[in-house]
From TrEMBL:
Name under which the protein is recorded: Glutamine synthetase
Pfam families, A to Z: Gln-synt_C, Gln-synt_C-ter, GSIII_N
InterPro entries to which the protein is assigned, alphabetical: Gln-synt_C, Gln_synt_N, Gln_synth/guanido_kin_cat_dom, Gln_synth_cat_dom, Gln_synth_gly_rich_site, GS_Type-3, GSIII_N
PANTHER family noted in UniProt: GLUTAMINE SYNTHETASE, TYPE-3 GLUTAMINE SYNTHETASE
Organism: Parapedobacter defluvii
Family statement: Belongs to the glutamine synthetase family.
Length: 688
């Protein structure tokens, strides 16, 4: 920007982005011309508004800079209006009833806080401009618009509270580091599995004799072919401004992880969405397919997208880093405890933010956090909060120093000072919270919008309570401490240090009043509770209509994914699995007939006769269950209420999946390996 923009335009843009102000059309004209010059000098021919509709994928419509004139000549043209706003067809994107299918108009609007970038694919270079996506009437139809509003609310609320300690704080931004887990599978094998192609996961397949039980894959030497992919990915990512810092083997065979540097939250999410596209593109060069489904294989670990979240001031202070002095300790405690209280009071909303058909397979599967939202702090910080809660401080203090009598001085904590708890959905890890329950295929904007909004709301309430005490004559520091102590007591139930997988924790969580919502359709109900609707509307994050629309979109997405999986199961059972099993069964029957004709006694072919019977039983069962599942699907499809339809798919259709899988897996162990029509898990799981 410094190279292509006039100095005054660059400085105005920097201030505008920093302060979140609207960009004037004059400034936009300067930027559009500079952006066009930069792009064309790099071989770009087209531009697009790059946005994140509620489909879960990114979207783009490319337009050429080339524009013909009436006299037959042409010019390169890119104006301020083209930069700031475009009009893609909104009718074919999910809207939850906000847009009718015959109403096509929607708008994309430039987000100047996220840098434009040049993306190259298929030999073509495109200038990509990150944008929001809204309806003709202004409602948000994407993930970015509500996120930006939630971040704005968090900024204002956090600044107001930070000013109790430091008046020079004028801005607070949320930072985010996203650990992305994924699987790689050979492209040829992927193409031979219709279930992987259409649903992103294997709907059946007997587990390989060797899986992850030897614990020899995690952090092991990266296979040479995979390392070549990773190096290529890192180089391509760096071109797009995404410095990947970490790469390693994950727990399951052919499962890996990459993680970038921490960034401002909006940019971090844009970069993660871009990274997913880039991973797919680079993988194809190496004859791989990337699987980002939360559970592509049963019986081994699934994949998450751990979101490491904190808050940073414009003065460079991490508000979730413990300090060395009483003042900085109190500031840390204030923000630390407010986050805990926000999660405690809105645990169900946080659970809803990570709910999906794919993530339901992973949560609580002894490899990922349970569906019960709890917070892990570690023994040291738990002890600190317990001491603050029980310490006695005089209500009237003449000597300011005496205020701290009996209040612990938090020791300087090293990064990740405390032990890890892999079973915790929301863990404190030194100077940040790690939201571990987010699924690998999710757009992090959803949980980060909710987290930012609930923390903003909590900080607003905190300031109000402190101000009331100060107005009554309580000294500021004592007022702050009083409210912090109150919040520690009120949010104690959400803190848990033990094994989140245990049955005892489910029972204990129930006693504490914590929810354990295991399936998506019911988890999503909280989006339209009066409490959530009021919170989002009060903070101007989502209107009531937008919240209700998102609830409907998420329910529709859920039942459609289950519907697709059910259809794929039915098709593969009838046209692939059953014919292969019948063919092998006929081979056995022919063999038994031959043995009989030779005059051998029944004992000589009893094992083969048993195999024939077992095959018949398994085939019969899967055909009966596949038809029963189809009938349940038909019943669900006629339901008009979206929530009822989603629940019907969850409770009446989905249970057939495991029943059918069991019998297909048994057939896989019986049928001649050369005649089994699908690549097996032992072939898919180990990269060659």
């Amino acid at each position: 920007m410094k190279e292509y923009l006039p100095k005054n335009a660059y400085e105005e843009l920097a201030v505008t982005i920093d302060e979140g102000k609207a960009i004037s059309l004059d400034l936009a004209e300067h930027i559009s011309q500079a952006m066009k010059s930069w792009a064309i000098s790099n071989g770009v021919t087209h531009y697009t508004h790059w946005f994140q509709p509620l489909t879960g994928a990114t979207a783009e419509k490319h337009d050429a800079f080339f524009e013909p004139l009436a006299d037959g000549s042409a010019i390169d043209k890119f104006t301020a209006s083209a930069l700031v706003q475009q009009e893609p067809d909104a009718s074919s994107f999910p809207s939850g009833g906000i847009r009718n299918t015959f109403e096509a108009r929607g708008y994309t609007g430039w987000d100047p806080s996220s840098p434009a970038f040049i993306y190259e694919t298929g030999g073509s270079k495109t200038l990509c401009i990150p944008t929001i996506f809204v309806s003709y009437t202004g409602e948000a139809l994407d993930y970015k618009a509500p996120l930006l509003k939630a971040l704005n609310a968090l900024d204002k609320a956090a600044v107001d509270v930070a000013n109790f300690f430091d008046k020079s704080v004028t801005k607070v931004f949320a930072s985010l580091g996203i650990e992305q887990e994924y699987f790689l599978v050979d492209l040829a094998l992927f193409n031979a599995r219709p279930d992987l192609q259409l649903t992103g996961r294997t709907l059946f397949g007997h587990m390989s004799a060797k899986g992850q039980q030897l614990e020899d894959h995690y952090f092991g030497a990266i296979p040479e072919r995979v390392l070549a992919f990773m190096v290529d990915l890192e180089q391509e990512a760096l071109k797009l401004g995404i410095p990947l810092k970490t790469r390693h083997n994950e727990v399951a065979p052919s499962q890996f992880e990459c993680a970038p540097m921490f960034e401002e939250i909006n940019l971090a999410i844009d970069h993660n969405q871009l990274l997913l596209n880039l991973m797919e593109q680079v993988a194809l060069r190496h004859k791989f397919k990337v699987l980002i489904h939360e559970k592509p294989y049963a019986d081994i670990n699934g994949s998450g997208k751990h979101n490491n979240w904190s808050m940073i001031t414009n003065t460079g202070v991490n508000l979730l880093s413990p300090g060395k002095t009483p003042k900085t300790n109190l500031m840390f405690l204030t923000f630390f405890v407010n986050v805990i209280k926000a999660v405690h009071d809105n645990a169900d909303l946080l659970r809803a933010s990570i709910a999906s058909a794919a993530n339901d397979h992973r949560l609580g599967a002894n490899e990922a956090p349970p569906a019960i939202i709890s917070i892990f702090l570690g023994s040291q910080l738990n002890a600190v909060l317990d001491e603050v809660e029980t310490a006695r401080v005089a209500k009237k203090v003449k000597n300011e120093a005496l205020l701290w009598h009996g209040i612990p001085k938090i020791p300087e904590l090293q990064l990740d000072n405390t032990d890890r708890n892999r079973t915790s959905p929301f863990a404190f890890t030194g100077n940040k919270f790690e939201f571990r329950a987010v699924g690998s295929s999710a757009n992090s904007a959803s949980p980060m919008t909710v987290l930012s909004a609930i923390v903003a709301n909590q900080l607003i309430e905190f300031k109000s309570e402190v101000d009331k005490q100060i107005k009554k004559g309580t000294k500021k520091d004592l007022a702050l401490l009083n409210v912090v102590r109150k919040y520690i007591k009120e949010s104690k139930a959400i803190r848990f240090e033990g094994n989140g997988y245990s049955k005892e924790w489910e029972e204990e969580a129930h006693k504490r009043g914590l929810s354990n919502i295991k399936t998506t359709p019911k988890a999503l109900d909280v989006y339209v509770s009066e409490k959530s609707l009021d919170l989002f509307e009060r903070l101007s994050v989502l209107t009531r209509r937008e919240s209700e629309a998102r609830h409907e979109i998420l329910l529709e997405n859920y039942y459609k994914k289950i519907q697709i999986e059910a259809r794929v199961i039915g098709e593969i059972v009838n046209s692939i699995i059953a014919p292969a099993a019948f063919k092998y069964q006929n081979d056995l029957i022919t063999n038994v007939k031959g043995l009989k004709e030779l005059g051998l006694k029944a004992d000589a072919y009893s094992s083969q006769s048993n195999l024939i019977e077992r095959i018949s039983n398994h085939i019969n069962t899967i055909l009966i269950d596949a038809e029963a599942m189809r009938q349940e699907r038909k019943k669900a499809n006629v339901l008009e209420d979206i929530r009822e339809k989603a629940i019907a798919y969850d409770e009446n259709v989905k249970p057939y999946f495991d029943k059918i899988r069991y019998h297909i897996n048994k057939l896989e162990q019986i049928v001649d390996d050369g005649q089994w029509p699908l690549p097996k898990l032992r072939e898919l799981l180990f990269v060659r």
